[in-house]
């Protein structure tokens, strides 16, 4: 169960590295294809805002990757739970306010990781 949880943590971390790249470096190119519901004329004026958002996704990714290299097994789980919780809250909020797809892509994997880690802790 713990191995599967760590795989989910790694997948969520990689997703957030992708979000970092998309929002910081490809906002006016590739992001137009990903965020089709966003008006095309707003990509250039919101470039700085998107880059800031991408930076936060990078912090989430860094925390998740950090959790995978912590040697203390309990702290490893606690740190992963914290960062997965941050991702889940952001994904739930985004799903409720922007697009339901955000819940599926962001919150759902984080929630699965949380459940797997909690099952490992308590079973």
Automatic annotation (TrEMBL):
Keywords: Membrane, Transmembrane, Transmembrane helix. The chain crosses the membrane at residues 6-28, 75-95, 102-122. It comes from the Bacteria. InterPro entries: DUF1304. It holds the Pfam family DUF1304. This is DUF1304 domain-containing protein.
